[in-house]
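The methods section describes the discrete structure representation at length, but only in general terms. What matters is that the chain and its backbone geometry are given together, residue for residue. For illustration, here is how one protein appears when written out as sequence plus structure tokens:
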Amino acid sequence: MRIIAGEMRGRQLKAVEGIHTRPTSDKVKGAIFSVLGEKVINSRVLDLFAGTGNLAIEALSRGSREAVLVEKNYDAYQVIQRNLSLLGVAGKTKLHLMDAFKFIDRYPNEVFNLIFLDPPYRQELIPRVIQSIKDFAYLTPDGVIVAETAKDEDLTGVIYPFEIRKTGEYGDTKIWYLQRMDV
């Protein structure tokens, strides 16, 4: 697993040993950032279910100004700490060892341009996150939520007040790009 573009291009990331995390592949990551394009530059990023920090670190490499990473698994948290330190971006990040829903409850006034949601597949966590953040200004008016699910999962009908702006399928993975309906 590596950074695929930007100032840290080609740098390797440490991964969590075992099967408890499923890092976003370079192919899928490349597709995500191709769709996001200029939205990444100078953005404030939230990476819930951060795993290795792969998506947030890629965003920083491509010009995001700050990333907040949330991970509840201690082994994954330690790997993220190591990756942030090795790549010299710890000063642009805030890393929280906690459950994603506790983070949302504890920090209801946070605002982000990009929110990455890559939870374990088939556990209905993305609809729960949407329910948790919908009443807050968690996302800037033109911000984007990038959600990663298994290809056979469906988010339609469970994402109000957000709407699906685009989707993409890559092997067994489906990427959903959501924005507020009034944008």
Observations:
- The mean pLDDT is 90.
